[in-house]
Amino acid sequence: IETFEVKTYTNSDPINILWVSDNQSWTTEEGKACDTAMLNILAHEVDGEGEPIYDFTIHTGDVSQNANRTFEYRDYYTYSRSATKNMCHVMTCGNNDLVEKKYSDAWAWYITAENQWANSVYSFDLGYTHFVCLNSNTDSTYVDGVGSIGGYANTDAFLEAQAEWFDDHMTEVEARENKTRWTIVFMHLSPFTVTRE
C-alpha cells in the first residue's frame, strides 16, 4: 500500500519538476540501472524539513524501444517505482514508444489524460503554471487513415493541425480571468537540434 498527497498550490508556491527521458530499457539489467539512477536522484530530494522537493515527474518519451515490447513498460513502472508510486507522473509519447515505430495507439493503453486532443497532446494547470504536451512524432495513427484515427494527408498536416489546436488553446488560456504566470510546453523531439561535428 502506498500513499501520496494531493497538494494545493498558490501563486507563490514553487513547483519542482523531475525531468526524465529516453530510458529505453531493453533488459532487466538496464531497468535496474534506471532504478539505481532514480534512487540516487531521490536520495538528495529532501529539504531541511524532511519534505520531498519534487512535486512531480515529467517523462518526455521513449520509455520503450518499441511499444510492441510491453514488458518494457512493466519494467519501467517496476524499476522507477521510487518516483512513480507516490509522485504524480506525466508522460510524452516518444518515437520509440510507437507500435512498430509508427502508431501511437498503444499510448492510449498506458496513458490517459484529461483535456486530450490526440495521443500525447494534452494540457493541465498546476498552481500558476500551465503545461502543454505535444506529439512531435511522425505518427501514422493520424496520417493517411492507416492507424485507428487517421485523416491527415501527411505528418506536416498533422503537425499543422496540432499547431492550430495549440494556438486556439493558448488563446483560451490567455482569456482566462486568472492568468497563468508561466506556460511550459514539452514534447519528445526538441524544436531544433544543436550538434557538433
Could you name the key traits of this structure?
alpha/beta; three-stranded parallel sheet; three-stranded mixed sheet
Overall radius of gyration: 18 Å
Helix % is: 25-40%
- How many angstroms does the end-to-end distance come to? 51 Å
Uncertain regions spanning at least 5 consecutive residues: none
Count the E strands.
Answer: 6
Structure in words:
The longest helix has 20 residues, at about 155-175. The protein is α/β, with parallel strands linked by helices and about 200 residues long. It has a three-stranded parallel beta sheet with strand order 1-2-3, with no helix packed on it. The model has no long low-confidence stretch (mean pLDDT about 85). The chain has helices at about 30-40, 70-80, 80-85, 105-110, 155-175; strands at about 15-20, 55-60, 90, 120-125, 130-135, 180-185. It is built from five helices and six strands. Helix 1 packs parallel to helix 2 (about 70-80).
Quick take:
This protein has 197 residues and is an alpha/beta fold. The chain has helices at residues 28-42, 70-79, 81-84, 105-110, 155-174; strands spanning 17-20, 56-59, 88-91, 122-126, 129-133, 182-186.
List the helices and strands and how they pair.
Layout (H helix, E strand, L loop, with lengths): L16 E4 L7 H15 L13 E4 L10 H10 L1 H4 L3 E4 L13 H6 L11 E5 L2 E5 L21 H20 L7 E5 L11
Parallel strand pairs: 1-2, 2-3, 5-6
Antiparallel strand pairs: 4-5
Helix pairs in contact: 1-2
